[in-house]
Every structure is written in C-alpha cells, then in structure tokens.
Design goal:
Shape of chain A: globular
Pfam family, one (chains A, B): ADH_N
Protein name (chains A, B): IMP dehydrogenase
Cofactor (chains A, B): Zn(2+)
Structural class of chain A: alpha/beta
CATH superfamily of the largest domain in chain A: Medium-chain alcohol dehydrogenases, catalytic domain
CATH architecture of the largest domain in chain A: Alpha-Beta Complex
Distance between the termini of chain A: 10 Å
Strand content of chain A: 25-35%
CATH class of the largest domain in chain A: Alpha Beta
Number of domains of chain A: 2
Radius of gyration of chain A: 20 Å
Oligomer: homodimer
GO molecular function (chains A, B): metal ion binding
Number of strands of chain A: 19
Keywords (chains A, B): Metal-binding, Zinc
C-alpha cells in the first residue's frame, strides 16, 4: 500500500510500504477513508535531521474496519470508525481515570512497526479500546468534523476542561491554528461567554468568531498582554488556553492570566524551562494541560457533531489526494492552508 | 508598646514602637494574646541585608479587640479574634472568589505603617473583613490550634484543596516543617488514605504520623523519588504538596507525581525558573498552589478545631515571652524548635 514517510525537514514522500496484517489478536485492520496533517507534524517538518530510515507519519484518521483479530469485539468488518491520536486499551487504571495517554499498553502511531494514519490502511493495536464506531455512512458530509475527534477537537476540549472553563470563566485562547480554533469552540461549548482569541491571521480569526470568540487580539508580546488586560478591566482572564507551544506564547499566558486563574497548555512545548517563580506563586496561577487523552472525550463530543451543534470540521480548508500529501505539508508550513484533509 | 523588628539576617530585636491607634474608620485595635514565628520569617532571617530602618515582623496573631473604627461591625471591643496572614476586605470580587490574597484593598502585616503580629498590639486595617471571632475564652487550651488558622493550617489546607485531594487520591507531602505537617493533617481531613511524608526529622515525622501520614520517606533527591515510586507501584502519587520552597523540593515533586497528577506548592519559591517541558507535558502534570487565601478557609476549618476533631496547634513545641522573640527565631533557624509561640 501507499503511505506517507518523512525523511527529514521538508522531505515528505508517499511510498509503497508493506500492507498491514493482523499481528496480535487485539489488532484490527482499518482502510483509511480520511486522514489529515497535524500542526504538530510541522515541528519535525521544520527540524527533523535527514535520515535513511524515514518516519511513518499521521496520527489522525477514520476509516472502514476490514478485519479484526480474534480478541476484538465491539467493532467489526464494515464499521466506520475513528481513532484517537494515541492508541490505548481503554481498560487500565489510567484509562479508567480518563488519562489514556498514560496507558501502559498504548502507544503512538508511526514508530515501532505501527502504521501512521497518512496512508491507505492501518493496523490498529488494542483495536477494541482504541476505535470508536461512527453511526454515519462513508460518504457523510460530517466526516471532516468526525475526523477532528482524532485530535484537534479533543485537544482543544482538553485545554478548556483542564483550565476549568465554565459559564463563570473568562477565557483567552493563544493561537489561531486548528487547535486554537478548536479550543475556542470547546470553551464556547462549555458555556464561556467571553472568549478572547489571540491571533493575527484574519481568515482564521474570522472562523474563530464563528466558533465563539468575542474579541480578537492580533498583537503579540507585551502589546498583546496590554490589550487583553485592557479588555478585562486590568485583570486578565480566568482561563488561558495556550495552543502554540512556543515559550513566547507561554509567557504571554503568564501576562494575561487573572490572579487565581489557570494556563492550560496543549501546544507541544518547544522549551524545557519556564519562568514560574514568586510572582506567579503570589498570583496563585495554576499551570495545567498536556497531551490530550482524546479517547476519553470522544463519546462525549460525538453527539454534538452528529446533531450539528458544533462543526469542528470547518478547520479543514483544503483536501488533497494521498499522493499530494507533500503539498499538504508545504501548504500548512507556508500558512497557505490551515489544516489539510487527505483522501487516500 | 513593644514589638519585634528585624534589622538584617540574624538580627531580630524587641523594641519600643508607637502604640497603634485607629487611623481609618475601618480599623480596629487588637491587643495580641498569642503570636508566633513563621517558617517564612526564616528566609529574611537568613538573608536580609542589614538596614537601619528595620522591618516589623509577624503575620500570625490572635487577641482581644480593644477598639473599633466607626465603620466596623461584626467584631467589637472585648471579642477574641484571629487574623489571617494577609488582611483583606472580604467583599471585593476576588474575596468573593475565595482569593483574598488578591484583594485590591488588602495587604501585608509589617510594611507601610501596618503593625506586625509579633508585638503587644496591632492596628488591623479592614478589620470587619479581616478578623474572625473566636467563641472561646482568652485562656482556652484551644488557642494554639486557633492561632494556626492564621497561616499554617490554612496554608496546608490550600495546598491540599488546590491539588484536588480527596478519598480517591494518594498524596505525597514534601517537607516536615509546620506547613508540611499541616498539609498532612489537611489531606487526612479531606479523606486521603495514603499520605507519604518526605522528611528526615524524627520528632516531626512522628507528629506527621499522628496527623495521618501512612509512610515516612527520609531520603531526598533521586533516592527519595525512587523510594516514593517503590511505595506506589512505580506510579507516584496523584497529589504532591510541596511545602518547602526550594527548587530541589519542587524537582522531587516532578519525580514523584503520578501521570495526570498535581504538584501544589505552598512553600515560598526561592527560584525564578523551573524545569517544566515536554516530559511533564506528556505526563499531564498540573502545577498549582500559591500564597494561601487563609481568610477563605477560616470559617470552614474553625468548627473542626472547636470540636476537637483536629489539633493543628500540636505543631507548636515551644513558647516564649515577647522579649525572648529573638531566641524563638534562633531556635527555629537551628531546627531546635519546630514552631514557637510568642506570649506578649
């Protein structure tokens, strides 16, 4: 089959790889119907050292179950299913706590002989725990929104949940990428009435407004901090959803968080240390977030998509054929596209 | 009157200062019955540059109201009252959120013409919001426990509340000082069944056991981390209550916190930056805590003391006359005493 492999910064190829086959009785084989490129794929696309080995790419996909191992129940051949961006057994003590990212029997798509999602098919380990059945047809117009359950919608939701977003909280979202816009949507869904979106790409912040943002702040750094404070009577917001991962974004978060508030980070941190000393201690600032346990939220968010209450799939603004996946990376890296769908 | 003044590291004096008098209609004058030295007083005792001005000391006291300003109701002359370690109006938007530490009309004991608690009397600003009436006599045996409401009990409680301690959480408390021991007591009170206390002073950890600690870990650093992990099946604990303030203590916290868990810091941080990068992000570690809004918790904790359910006053192991306050500092700095009461 064909699948996407990255060989280094800027070097993404679609190649022939071995067809997936059941290796363990807990596996399933899924034919991919829809996949996409993630903002986090752009970090290695910018910096991965060149390698002969290559890295299988993609951790967001939905598709049709073709075959299941002998120990898999709950999903069967012919089912349309979506996978979270990490696989997990959904039964261990961590999964029961809603922290599927810490599942000792789980793992990542791509490395260690596991397929990536940007390909024609995927062997899904721990299929029973990992896959969520979608009660729509393969040609449903809801597919892009349902694919967002793999990552960006659940990641935005995670940031809002961990920050304690509710109808009583004001919110700042830092970053107008697909995760930032999903965080806006998630905060709105949780009842927040005041949502300030920090972003400077008008087409994206316009979508942010549609998703529920009440104010747009294009300024960055000290200027951006001053603007958010001005909008909030000098106080800042209770919740800050940090959806970038750069140290400068986190530092903006420290500047705009209200005393007693929380910064919830879901942008993959590109730093090892942060300033977090006496001033933040005196302010009772909480720092939370992390890699989203998407699987924990999928059943909760699915009905809102099926009922049309939310349209997270609007973050996708382009679709390419699997063969053109390298163009998808380029378009997203150039900020020419927000988030690109891949149709194998 | 006599009051305690610090002129530099190791230089604490009891001197004559002007008698307090009502300056604002919201003031009250309180004659101090019982005060104490705080672990946080030991930071300037170790490092304050010598100064001619001196700094009025003490932020924990209870006493008898002698006089109230014209706008003070709720407390009156003759009442026995306790004060939290920061004064506040108890009516602003932050106080209503339970974050009295951010009260815009509040402040610290000691600086800016406000008396410290280690003296014969105190002018209490925002007296109506600040003072909590105690329904016991001036000679009650409960006074030391009631004095702990000023700071250490509420600070320990704050660390446990912010970390989400409940009957379902395992807990590590870092530090066997008065705040650490209070955190053990608070965690036990909130229902935690497994409480690991990291501390190496046997008389203190013995009291920790009485307060509810189930395990004592005297080791520090990597050894201490390994021991806590061993005690928790390799996982660490859901809650880590960091009651020291040193970077090394925080780093132990990172080592013993369970994936998805929280480190709640109430030790005043003696650092400006912390390691908090991808590893902690992948573990979904929350970092919370801060300066405790003691006033927010006093009414909630008071009944348990009055009913004898908790005895937080057991952290006091020595009593001195006001004139001997310098000895109290010395004894605590030398770890010869845990926490010292002052009787003016």
């Amino acid at each position: 089959m064909r699948a996407t492999v990255m060989y280094g910064a800027g070097d993404v190829r679609v190649e022939n790889v071995p067809d997936p086959r059941i290796q363990n009785p807990t596996d399933a084989i899924v034919r991919v119907v829809l996949a996409c490129v993630c903002g986090s794929d752009l970090w290695p696309y910018a910096s991965m050292p060149a390698s002969d080995q290559g890295r299988r790419m993609g951790h967001e996909f939905l598709g049709i179950v073709e075959e299941t191992g002998s120990e898999v129940s709950g999903v069967k051949a012919g089912d349309l299913v979506v996978a979270p961006f990490l696989w997990a057994d959904n039964t261990c003590v961590f999964c029961e706590e809603g922290l599927h990212t810490a599942c000792p029997h789980g793992g990542q798509w791509g490395p260690n002989g596991v397929d990536g999602g940007q390909g024609e098919a995927v062997r899904v380990p721990q299929a029973q725990g990992t896959l969520v059945k979608l009660p729509v047809a393969e040609d449903s117009a809801l597919l892009p929104s349902l694919l967002s359950l793999s990552d960006v919608l659940c990641t935005g939701h995670h940031s809002a949940v961990k920050a304690g977003v509710s109808p009583r909280t004001t919110v700042t979202v830092i970053g107008d990428g697909a995760v930032g816009l999903s965080a806006v949507l998630a905060a709105k869904r949780l009842g927040a009435e005041r949502i300030i979106l920090m972003g400077r790409h008008k087409d994206r912040t316009d979508l942010g407004r549609d998703f529920g943002a009440t104010d747009i702040v294009p300024e960055r750094g000290e200027e951006g901090i001053a603007r958010v404070r001005e909008l909030t009577g000098g106080l800042g917001t209770h919740a800050v959803l940090e959806c970038v991962g750069a140290l400068s974004a986190f530092e903006m978060g420290l500047g705009v968080v209200r005393p007693g508030g929380a910064i919830s980070r879901v942008g993959v941190p590109q730093y090892g240390e942060i300033p977090f000393g006496f001033t933040d201690f005196a302010k009772n600032v909480t720092l939370t977030g992390g890699v989203a346990p998407a699987r924990a939220y999928m059943e909760e968010l699915l009905p809102d998509i099926l009922e049309g209450k939310i349209e997270p799939g609007r973050v996708f603004d382009r679709t390419v054929d699997l063969n053109d996946t390298p163009d998808a990376y380029r378009a997203m890296a150039d900020r020419d596209a927000l988030k690109v769908l891949i149709e194998p």
